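thread from #wetlab-drylab

HS: before we spend reagent money on co-crystallization trials with 5-O-phosphono-beta-D-ribofuranosylamine, can we at least see a predicted complex? here's what I'd submit
DV: go for it
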Amino acid sequence: MNSSSPIINIAVFASGTGSNAQKIIEHFQKHPSIRVALVASNKKDAGVLTIAAHHDVPVLILEKEPFFKGDAYLPVLRQYAIDFIILAGFLWKIPVPLITAYPSKILNIHPALLPKYGGKGMYGHFVHEAVIAAKEPESGITIHFVDEQYDHGNTIFQAKCPITETDTPDSLAQKIHLLEHAHFPAVIENTINGLL
Ligand code: GRF
């Protein structure tokens, strides 16, 4: 946490549409002490950038070389006095220097009940296709701290939804998104406040 300010600054990292980022930005818009200070994306045309612009949140485009082989944008994150990093559909692995600089302060959301259906290549539609193919009776979301391995850090929160016989990967994705939108912002707030 930065010592000069009572405000806690969040950076949201996202690679895609950004519906979770939007819910997070809206949730903290009028918060007295927590705000989304930055949206970072590795994709120049990601929908999340439009959402950030709409809400006047500064944007950072992440390039591969400086992210993985350079300083992992640490100086920029410090410039924005970032205290917590929230991964909301961010597809790059977080490099060790960032994990070291933000111990237990990087949170990820995964669209399944970890430890099942996680790891490299298990993202987005691939997760829901695997869950449906395995005829699981339920799926859900996992919000967890980020460590050096994909989808591996300590779990903070899980929520479940039932899967019916008529569910498809698409319909399951919709159910999961609803769960994410309902829980992610509050879980972030509670984690920052030390309640979880
Ligand atoms: C979410 O389902 C999240 O769990 C996964 O990527 C998706 C991002 O969706 N990691 P959106 O861009 O927030 O709509």
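DV: Residues 52 and 180 are 19 Å apart (CA to CA).
HS: ok that's useful, forwarding to the group
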